[in-house]
Design a protein that fits this description.
Blueprint lengths: L16 H20 L4 H23 L54 H13 L18 H10 L2 H12 L5 H28 L13 H13 L12 H25 L12 H18 L13 H10 L54 H13 L4 H15 L6 H10 L1 H9 L4 H18 L9 H13 L5 H4 L16
Helix pairs in contact: 1-2, 1-5, 1-6, 2-6, 2-7, 3-10, 4-6, 7-8, 8-9, 8-10, 9-16, 10-16, 11-12, 11-13, 13-14, 13-15, 13-16
Length: 502
């Protein structure tokens, strides 16, 4: 797969007068931050360039005539041949998408008011996982870390350029924090992005412009935008921040998120949506395969040595699976079980995908290894499945063997892992074997949020949390049947309300 940054970028129209005014306002805030914290100059420059790109992309979308789509022959590569047929959807299918997530039954830190949802619980959980070996001070210093959604809003709504200076002098300079400065950049980036999105959607609503269904973002512009978006959520140490391994994990985390939220984002006209970008279907399939390959890579013990941020992908996919947000339970239960014979996805080898943004990466398909025998705790999971869900047991047992071939013996919590898998993966496998049922899919999706509320705290256990996270990530993202892969079958339909983007 060719590196995204090697591709030719499209030529966008320059911003209009309102766009330049928005950029000047952004630049004023960025200059204040840079003067106080030159250590984040790279972040600031990337933010500045990305916002300029967004302004040009929106204006180009509104004013450049829609070009006729070239009819290309269907790709016959092993990946594209496996692309699924998507189910029909209505607006009611998206009422479940709430950014606040479901409340955690057991809070991450019960005495901290801000950690009251799976959304913020997942954020702190990833921090805790990454910080186990090298304590960077993120675990217990909320004010010294990257901002969550409501913190974005607080910064954006209460700070102008003058007050921003006071904010820096009064709060950050008191206890120097590079991450705190990055958090301010995050707030300004989020504010600018929301402002430009709203501006063009209001222009369309007023009849001043007509936004077409096509999207001017290509593979490289999408990749830069999504990498930046994730960068502000998951800040690695300065020594690793701009390394390829870290940037690849950031980008592919957004790919997984977009695979789940595609139609929900389409309802808002979000320009950065992955599936609505101007990319060939084959490229989208490769990105999805990269996401699966890096999930498998994250299950391997050696994956967690070189980089601080190596738990990012595994924690992300488990969090999505336990909030009902994942295509795993939503769009995954479609046309029955896909065939397992000669499956390129099952045989996709683990890969860190380090060059996906720069020099490219090569995905390898070869027969997947399987453990000759299960370890004691994994064998107990298999035995419970055989006794309680005999129809799903052969597939479940085979996937446990494949997981341990990657991971080695599993030392997780049998009871909590079984309760989660029983109500997510196994329930979805059984539903896939029966007649397609949107109602049944919705029941599993909603129950995944309930079991997430009940069991999410167990993933913080220092003895078993990482083991459970690795197993759940594999079952949610790399195991057969490929519920995650089924999200790649998105196609535009005539649902009222999401026509802006598809």
């Amino acid at each position: 797969m060719e590196g995204a940054l090697h591709l030719a970028r499209p030529a966008f129209l320059p911003p209009d007068e309102e766009g330049y005014a928005r950029l000047r306002h952004l630049d004023a805030g960025l200059r204040v931050i840079e003067a106080a914290f030159p250590q984040v100059s790279t972040d600031i420059e990337v933010c500045r360039l990305t916002c300029m790109m967004l302004e040009g992309a929106w204006r180009s979308r509104a004013l450049i005539p829609t070009r006729e789509e070239e009819q290309t022959a269907a790709c016959t590569c092993p990946l594209c041949r496996r692309l699924p047929t998507p189910p029909a959807r209505t607006l009611d299918d998206y009422r479940w998408r709430q950014s606040a997530g479901r409340p955690l039954t057991v809070k991450t830190w019960p005495n901290r008011r801000e950690l009251d949802s799976v959304l913020t619980g997942g954020w702190s959980w990833t921090r805790q996982m990454n910080d186990l070996e090298r304590d960077l001070g993120h675990r217990y210093r909320f004010e010294d870390d990257i901002l969550v959604f409501h913190e974005y809003k607080r910064v954006v709504d209460t700070i102008d350029t003058t007050r921003l200076t006071q904010f820096i002098e009064g709060r950050l300079a008191e206890n120097f924090s590079t991450n705190g400065a990055r958090a301010l950049v995050s707030g300004l980036f989020a504010a600018h992005k929301r402002t430009v999105d709203e501006y063009w959607l209001q222009q369309h609503d007023a009849g001043s412009v007509t936004l077409p269904q096509t999207n001017p973002l290509n593979q490289s512009t999408y990749s830069i935008l999504q990498m930046l978006d994730c960068l502000f959520w998951h800040v690695a140490p300065d020594t690793e921040l701009w390394q390829e391994e870290n940037l690849a994990s950031l980008l592919l985390c957004r790919v997984i998120d977009d695979m789940a939220d595609v139609r929900a984002d389409a309802l808002t006209g979000e320009i950065s949506n992955f599936w609505l970008a101007d990319m060939p279907t084959h490229t989208k399939a490769l990105y999805a395969a990269c996401a699966i390959a890096i999930v498998k890579y994250g299950c391997m013990p050696e994956a967690h040595d070189p980089m601080w941020n190596t738990w990012l992908m595994t924690t992300t996919i488990v969090w999505m699976g336990l909030t009902g947000r994942h295509a795993l339970w939503f769009d995954g239960i479609t046309q029955g079980l896909p065939p397992a014979e000669d499956c390129p996805l099952c045989d996709l080898q683990p890969n860190a995908c380090a060059g996906v943004l720069t020099h490219g990466t090569t995905l390898t398909i070869s027969p997947r290894p399987t453990a000759p025998a299960l370890s004691a705790r994994t064998a107990e999971l298999s035995a419970r499945c055989r006794a309680q869900h005999p129809q799903a047991w052969p597939l479940f047992d085979a996937e446990l063997h494949a997981f341990e071939a990657l991971h080695g013996p599993w030392y997780g919590s049998i009871d909590s892992a079984w309760e989660i898998l029983r109500r997510t993966y196994i329930a979805a496998v059984e539903a896939s074997s029966a007649e397609p049922s949107p109602e049944r899919a919705r029941q599993i999706q909603e129950d995944s949020g309930v079991v997430g509320s009940e069991k999410f705290h167990t993933l913080h256990d220092p003895r078993t949390g990482r083991e459970d996270t690795a197993l759940l990530a594999y079952m949610f993202g790399g195991a057969h049947p490929h519920f995650l892969w089924n999200a790649t079958g998105y196609r535009p339909t005539g649902v009222a309300g999401d026509w802006l983007d598809g």
